[in-house]
Amino acid sequence: MFKLKITGRLGSRSAGRWLYPVLAIAWAIVPAPALAICFVSATPAIRELQTLVGKDAARALQQVAVRLQPLESSPQPDAQLLASLYAVQAQAYSILELADDARNAAAKGLKFATLASDPVYLDVLSAYAENVYDQDGIDHAIKSIDGARALQAGGSLADTCLLITRGLLLYRQDRSDLAIASLTQAYHASTTPEFAAARIDAAGALSMAMRSAGDYPQALALNQEVIDRHTQTGATLNLSVDRFLRGKILNLMGQNTSAIEEFTEARKLSVQLGDTQGVAFADLLDCTARIELGQLERAESECNNALRAFTEAHTPDQVKESLALLAGIDLAKGRAAKALDTLNKVLDRDGVDLLPGRVLSLYQLRARAYAALHKYRDAYADLTEYAKRFATANDAERSKAAAALRARFETDREIARNALLQRELALSQEKSQRQARELRWNAIVATLGVLVIALLMYFLMVNRRYRQQLVKLASQDSLTGLPNRRRTAELATAALADATGAQTPLTIAIIDMDHFKIINDRCGHATGDFVLKEFARVGRESLRDADVLGRWGGEEFLLIMPDATLEFALASLERMRTLVFGIHLPASGAGLRVSLSAGLATTSRHGRSLDELVARADSALYVAKNEGRDLVRVADEAHLSTTSIRRALRQ
Prior knowledge:
Layout: H1 14-26, H2 44-55, H3 57-73, H4 79-95, H5 99-112, H6 119-129, H7 135-149, H8 157-172, H9 176-189, H10 196-213, H11 216-233, H12 236-252, H13 256-273, H14 276-292, H15 296-312, H16 316-332, H17 336-346, H18 356-372, H19 376-393, H20 398-428, H21 435-473, H22 485-502, E1 506-513, H23 516-523, H24 525-542, E2 548-553, E3 556-562, H25 566-579, E4 596-602, H26 610-626, E5 632-634
Parallel strand pairs: 4-5
Antiparallel strand pairs: 1-3, 1-4, 2-3
């Protein structure tokens, strides 16, 4: 039911060292914010259904089905009424976390509401976008929302509601900074009574983004505003999800006891509504919080309750979440064999049915189970798989996971050394008549001790090498060998600071490969990868040593040129633009050629903010794309906005 990626917090008890990988998985199942219906209908009957959705979505679905039946069978149905009912149906499915059903209902509504200025059309469009989770779908949804916003008056209710949906999609892309900017704008714009529903939507989504950014006090305050509103309106189902979210914030603040109280209240509301999935999630989240408190017996009981409920509901992803937690508890209790058996079931498909971040933690946990059973070859195999997946996941928790694994082997080494010393002391106290056997045993124990220590040292050195490799991978794009987005941002920030101190210009460029999606579709992804690698090579060879070219995302690159004027940078980019023509495509790409578009911006006249420079360069890139691509354009020096949102132009 709940599908937001949030990282868990380690407790101080010893169980935390064993269970951290599983906790990182379990906290990925936190309730999504139950958005109110921002576009409140002017039709009383529809408005009543919209209100019912927040109180009891299942009952709202039943009433909508009764009203839809005669309309769907009518040869000439009322298109406006039909679209409105589909919008309510989509919202009800959405709040019940039935994303596929919600999208299907919204898609039906879009067939009957086609006028872009119609609030019903905007309502259905938002409902569809809010239930998209795949990357391509999110990109397309953002483009649709931007297109609809362009037709609305700035600051209007319609514009504000669409801005909230856009913020939610940006958050779903892990772009919390842009999400916070959009949602804050919507929150401040919705202060009048007619914007009441929009304000609650904005507060709920902004609380989620603030939590992701680590601003827990602000996240709690916004969450309380939502809880107060839903309590006042009797929106029981919304309130249940609000309580779940509050519990998660408290857990991240280390207040696990208070978090459990919130989960308990949310569970009561789910029971009241007959929401068996909500009850199961409450048990699972309660289990996780109790693990952090070291209450393993109670945690095991709660996880087993959740496992039974998810098994009966045929939700395999949540069944695996429950099993992963139980495996971690078994390992903490010394039941390594049972934990290993459970983890083999969870990883029965090598993680293809799980999110990448979850798979990382599971392989790491299974390696520990193997190590506890002295199956070091299997442990090493899982560590190797863990490292490979780690390199592609670009997970912010990679250094913590490596440190936890190293601590595990260091602990094993210390235990083995202590055991050897104790054995030697016992042998030294034996009687002289047993000296021959004592010497024999000393030799055996010493040999075994050296082997054990050598093996553990080997694992420690391997782990150190992996850690160094992972640190490198954390700053390097694996395909092109260029700095990745995080490292590029760090280099750009440092270059900006140097330019500010020395009062010299700094010029940056956003570079985008033209028609890259078409090349991928017609020539295959292998050709697309070849184009990106060749561009990286050409770019490095055509730039100065002081210039930095980094991968910014997808087919997009950021060029940093210290002490470079716009004229010099423009000449460099024009040279690069000419060189990429030499990248040849296979026969399947007949009629296509490799080209690039770029936008330039400099600090020579304006502020010293990296966000501002990127936004201005992005605007210039947008101009280059609009003017036909295969162009380099310089940012309008009058453009100073740092809150403009990038338009989706990838085709």
